[in-house]
Write a structure and sequence with these properties.
- The complex is a heterodimer of chains A (302) and B (195).
- Chain A contains eight helices and eleven strands.
- By secondary structure, chain A is α/β, with parallel strands linked by helices.
- Chain A has two domains: 119 residues, 60s Ribosomal Protein L30, Chain: A, CATH 3.30.1330; 123 residues, no CATH class.
- In chain A, the strands form three sheets. A five-stranded mixed β-sheet of chain A has the order 4-2-5-10-11. In chain A, strands 6-9-7-8 form a four-stranded mixed β-sheet.
- Chain A is globular and about 55 Å long.
- The two termini of chain A are 39 Å apart.
- Chain B has a single domain, classed as fumarase (Alpha-Beta Barrel), CATH 3.20.130.10.
- Helix content of chain B is 29%, strand content 29%.
- Chain B is built from six helices and eight strands; from the N terminus they run H-E-H-E-E-E-H-E-H-E-H-E-E-H.
- In chain B, the strands form two sheets. A five-stranded mixed β-barrel of chain B has the order 1-2-5-6-8. In chain B, strands 3-4 form a two-stranded antiparallel ribbon.
- Classes of the chains: A alpha/beta (302), B alpha/beta (195).
- At the A-B interface, helix 3, helix 6 and helix 8 of A face strand 3, helix 5 and helix 6 of B.
Chain lengths: 302, 195
């Protein structure tokens, strides 16, 4: 048994204080500046929209992005449930507990110091601690990547209007892909205008029940223009995007062509007796921000 | 604001409206406490508009009697559907005439609007930075133990344009869109190769 650090290469070490600062900065930044891919998504929808009301709504949404940047204000009042996706590369040394505490403290500080509306309550008493934190919140997802000496922290403030548009069905093999497709179309219809369309509709296919819903969330928060790595999943997301946008739900559910920027699909292997499908939706204020730590320093982006 | 039943009855779906002076902010917890737990507000909501919101605010020193001690940072609008069952009591007990929200309300609210004289005005969800520029001040706040889901009294200027999406004559843009979406479902599924 030897230590895993490569001989002769200094491991990347990130201080908990740097994680705390980044968590605070990312939460506030995500709430104020939309990623470029989402801005381009608006331009694309606006160019293709044929309904007059829908076009006017899209124009107001685009105007709001500019107002938020000019006035240094939040895009949407919903500060969401804070989610942090941590991706750890190779040759990174980390105190996991300190990382978790740093994320929590950064979230609390953003809430108190900006200040932000704490949208987080105890699920039974409904008590709001005004910290945006609580049991298991912020949500922290951990994953690993092959890159050397890289630590990536992605922040997603997940709004409730779209999160309430979440659906899971444990379909069976005999339901086939037909059942999956029908489920997604019907989920879009049930969600209607309540999820603040145009949306990114995330679809999870396969896995276990919890993994399936997690895949749907990953899909819903993926940048526009990205494609499912699985070839069959990529074909499915293209077909579903076209289908959902043929329904005419439109921006805010008031009719039009622009129901979803895209439908994104993520897949996982599943059991021979299972065929699970989940839908998780991201609203048009598809907010995210990221910090990438390398030996050269920290880069802030989306 | 406030307005009369006659003012409301003149409005039809598709019209646009811009509001002035006073607007009340209300949300899930506010209405659960008012109508399920029997709490009363000291505010007179008769003839007024309520908006489904819980704002981002900053505590500040009170500067006068017409000052809540809060400054608005970001005021936006939440999904109305969750508060569907409170439309009728809001109108019957409190005299509210206008509900502002996003995503629409259902048949029960449409019935209340028709019987009692009310409208639903659609604001564009997720455009809170813009909406905040229409808010001049937070004049007062009640039921503030529910913060941020307190009952807020905003002073507004040129709040809109807002779209009349449900009127007092049985008209609902949401119902019309829903009908059309249901009609398109079969074609969408057929294109996906689903019977």
């Amino acid at each position: 048994m030897t230590l895993m650090t490569k001989a002769g290469v200094e491991a990347l070490r990130v201080a908990p204080e740097a994680i705390e600062e980044a968590a605070k900065l990312l939460y506030i930044r995500a709430l104020k500046i939309l990623p470029d891919d989402i801005k381009q998504g608006f331009a694309r929808l606006d160019a293709g929209e044929t309904d007059g009301t829908a076009k006017a709504i899209l124009a107001t949404m685009i105007e709001n992005i500019g107002v938020a940047e000019r006035t240094d204000n939040l895009l949407c009042q919903d500060t969401g449930i804070p989610i942090f996706n941590v991706t750890i590369g190779r040759n990174v040394e980390l105190d996991g507990w300190a990382l978790k505490q740093g994320i929590r403290r950064g979230t609390e500080r953003a809430t108190r110091e900006h200040p932000l509306r704490s949208s987080v309550v105890h699920p039974i008493t409904r008590k709001n601690e005004h910290t945006s934190c609580g049991a298991h919140v912020p949500v922290i997802n951990l994953d690993f990547c092959e890159e050397d000496r890289v630590l990536r922290l992605e922040m997603i403030p997940k709004g409730s209007g779209s999160e309430n548009g979440s659906f899971l069905q444990m379909l069976i093999p005999a339901d086939g892909m037909a059942g999956v497709k029908r489920f997604v179309v019907d989920a879009a219809m049930k969600a209607g205008g309540k999820v603040c369309p145009p949306t990114i509709m995330g679809v999870g296919v396969g896995g276990t029940s919890d993994l399936c819903m997690h895949l749907a969330k990953v899909a819903a928060t993926r940048p526009l223009g990205s494609r499912c790595a699985d070839e069959e999943g990529a074909k499915l997301e293209a077909a579903l995007s076209e289908a959902v946008n043929s329904l005419g739900i439109g921006p805010q559910g008031l009719g039009g062509d622009s129901t979803a920027f895209a439908v994104h699909v993520e897949v996982a292997a599943t059991h021979i007796t299972m065929n699970p499908v989940a839908v998780n939706i991201q609203c048009h204020s598809a907010r995210r921000a990221s910090a990438t730590f390398t030996p050269d320093g920290v880069a802030i982006g989306f | 604001m406030p307005c009369t039943e006659a003012d409301i009855r003149k409005l039809r779906i598709g019209d646009t409206v811009t509001l002035q002076d006073t607007l009340f902010g209300i949300r899930d917890a506010t209405q659960i406490h008012m109508f399920d737990h029997g709490r009363r507000t000291r505010f007179d909501l008769k003839g007024h508009a309520v908006i489904h919101t819980a704002p981002n605010v900053r505590k500040v020193d009170k500067r006068g009697t017409n000052d809540s001690g809060y400054e608005a940072i970001c005021v936006g609008t939440t999904t109305s559907d969750r508060m569907e069952r409170f439309t009728r009591p809001l109108m019957e007990r409190e005299g509210v005439r206008i509900v502002i929200g996003k995503g629409g309300l259902r048949e029960g609210s449409l019935d209340a609007f028709r019987e009692l004289g009310g409208v639903y005005l659609a604001i564009i969800g997720g455009t809170a930075a813009l909406e905040t520029t229409w808010i001049e001040a937070i004049e007062d706040v009640d039921l503030d133990d529910l913060n941020p889901e307190s009952l807020w009294r905003f002073r507004i200027k040129d709040f809109g344009p807002l779209l009349v999406a449900m009127d007092s004559h049985g008209g609902s843009l949401y119902a019309a869109v829903q009908k059309s979406v249901e009609d398109r479902r079969a074609a969408a599924l057929a294109k996906l190769g689903v019977a």
